[in-house]
Amino acid sequence: MKVFLLVLYFAILLGIGFYCRKHAKDVEGFVLGGRNVGAWLTAFAYGTSYFSAVVFVGYAGQFGWKYGIAATWAGIGNALIGSLLAWFLLGRRTRIMTRHLKSATMPQFFETRFGSNWLKIASAIIIFIFMIPYTASLYNGLSRLFGMAFDLDYSVCIVLMAVLTAIYVIAGGYLATAINDFIQGLIMLVGIVAVIYAVFETKGGFTASLDALARVEDVSVSTSPGIFASFFGTDPINLFFVVLLTSLGTWGLPQMVQKFYAIKDEKAIQKGTVISTLFAFVVAGGCYFLGGFGRIFSEQIDIKANGFDSIIPTMLSGLSDGMIALIVILVLSASMSTLSSLVIVSSSTLTLDLIKDNFVKNMKENSQVFLIRALIVVFIAISAILALVQYKSSVNFIAQLMGISWGAMAGAFLAPFLYSLYFKWVTKEACFVSFVFAVGLMTANILMRPAFPAIFQSPINAGVLAMVAGLVLVPIVSAITKKPDEKLTEHAFACYEEKITVPIRTSLNDD
Questions:
Q1: Which neighbouring-strand residues pair with 356?
Q2: What DSSP string describes 289-341?
Q3: Are 386 and 398 in contact (CB under 8 A)?
Q4: CA–CA separation, 5 and 119 (whole Å)
Q5: Checking phi first, is residue 140 left (phi over 0); if not, alpha (psi -120 to 50) or beta?
Q6: How confident is the model over 181-231, as pLDDT tens digits?
Q7: Which CA distances in Å does 427 have to 89, 432, 479, 494?
Q8: Mean pLDDT of the chain
Q9: 3-class SS at 90?
């Protein structure tokens, strides 16, 4: 049963990849699906790129153990801030301006928006450095689940996932990824609801599980009775930082923002906003909510020996074979969808923003597509090797670097990207300052963590500091540096003044 479902799942993914080959013949078709992707595909692509095995196995288990069901606030924040507000504030303007400026990647946007090749190079290098360890992290969490379900070595899981993802992404590009993301998203929606129900049933249902959680005591964390069953949780301040990084951080992540580049039209943006928000409520909210009940399984869990990643697999270990098969496919779906999104962004950024023009002048369209495909193989291979190295030798620095990659990229890009969509006064110098501050802060957090104030020793809290600092620094630096070229800004913002005709049911005329 389990093997059959996996084989069927893999066959569908590969079939879609080869079916979409005809839409991936040029750069815009391969990287953005021809900017003609509808609401459902874009919304699910956004959601599945957002939530991976890192969330389901790692974050849900760790934060659920620390904060109880209050960890659900992270899922709510992901839905309201990371999805609803992101689509509302960024979706339309990103689609309009990036098409007008003919930019297919975030570094290209910075170059054309500010007229600076150095901005393009700097942002491309940041993405290149911090995206690889991020991709390696996606394999984490699969080892315990595959071991539990199939008694299969983690190395086999890594190679299998890497090869299958490479085949369908190389074959069909962004469109294949988007269609597969839709299928994977459906699996995630059904899977998380089924898993929550099944786990509660092993403890006598939801009411009995909540009662058991309310009886859990840990004086090392809090002396308040029933604290783990409270929606205020054990540590509201640090939980607030978790909510901010995992929610607001999406606004500056290239693999998330790039979904808006490809969306089809106005209706797709409106529908996509609703679909993406509901998806996040179910998947992210469900993951963190489930993780909040981890402590009622404490007699089966040894955190000191096995770490936080053992919590969710332990909660699932008593389920039926059919349910475990669904869970394995759920986690595979979450990881493969995010991996495919990351490698497309990484390979297209390296090709279009570093190699093309800087090293290989006048690169032809076919050569660009070929190089992007080749680099997808390279990126997936490197991430798989890093995951294998970490697994075989327990190298911890890789995990630390993965932890700060989100904060570094979001901290560097969020403020410059957001402000430049809305305001003409943003300067290229302000963008550089945001880049340098975020990368410098997160790198220092790795190398000199004990020197940081206690609250910012956590990479999560440091990442939030980087994002908030960028929102403050960009206006300040823009105010004290030379104003941007007027012709350049007028050209960029001219796209918002373009006139279109709409039916009267959409907008009343002056009469």
A1: 360
A2: HHHTTGGGGGGG--HHHH-GGGHHHHHHTTS-HHHHHHHHHHHHHHHHHHHHH
A3: yes
A4: 46
A5: beta
A6: 888 888 888 888 888 988 888 888 999 989 988 888 886 777 777 888 888
A7: 21, 9, 9, 18
A8: 84
A9: helix
Confidence of residue 2 (pLDDT cuts 50, 70, 90): low
Alpha helix (H) residue ranges in 310-424: 311-316, 321-349, 365-393, 396-422
Burial class (CB in 10 A: 0-12, 13-18, 19+), 316: buried
Q: Which helix (H) or strand (E) holds 48?
A: helix 39-50
448: amino acid identity, one letter = M
End-to-end CA distance of the chain: 66
By C-alpha distance, which of 30, 204, 15 is closest to 105?
Answer: 30
Q: Compute the distance between CA of residue 487 and CA of residue 490 in angstroms, rounded to an integer.
A: 5
C-alpha to C-alpha distances, 12 to 80, 168, 336, nearest whole angstrom: 32, 10, 13
CA 183/CA 264 separation, integer angstroms: 19
Residue that the structure tokens 């913002």 belong to: 493
Nearest to 287 by CA among 500, 136, 5, 75: 75
**Global confidence as pTM:** 0.87
Q: Which neighbouring-strand residues pair with 218? A: 222
Q: Which two tokens stand for residue 78?
A: 């992901």
Query: 3-state DSSP call for residue 405?
Result: helix
Which stretches of 51-153 are DSSP H helices? 53, 60-67, 72-79, 86, 92-100, 106-114, 117-137, 142-150
How many other C-beta atoms lie within 10 A of the C-beta of residue 191? 23
Handedness of CA 129, 106, 338, 25 (dihedral sign): negative
Task: Report the pLDDT value the prediction gives residue 330, as an integer from 0 to 100.
Answer: 77
Q: Which helix (H) or strand (E) holds 162?
A: helix 154-202
DSSP label at 69? G
Please write down the long-range contacts of 22-29, taking CB distance under 8 Å and 24 or more positions apart: 23/172, 23/173, 23/175, 24/171, 24/172, 24/173, 24/174, 24/175, 24/176, 24/369, 25/369, 26/365, 26/369, 27/104, 27/348, 27/352, 27/365, 27/368, 27/369, 27/372, 28/104, 29/173, 29/174, 29/175
Virtual torsion, Cα 37, 39, 42, 44, nearest 10 deg? -140
The domain 2-391 having CATH identifier 3.40.190.10: the answer here is no
- Quick one: CA dihedral 119, 122, 126, 132, positive or negative? positive
Token couple for 444: 């220092």
pLDDT at 441 over 90: yes
Q: Which residue type does 169 have? A: V
d(CA 177, CA 89): 25
497: amino acid identity, one letter = E
Q: Are 412 and 252 in contact (CB under 8 A)?
A: yes
Q: Which amino acid is at 92?
A: R
Nearest to 129 by CA among 469, 435, 361: 435
Quote the CA–CA distance of 365 and 102 in Å, as a whole number. 15
Give the model's pLDDT for residue 412: 95
Confidence of residue 147 (pLDDT cuts 50, 70, 90): low
| Nearest to 178, CA basis, from 366, 31, 277, 25 | 31
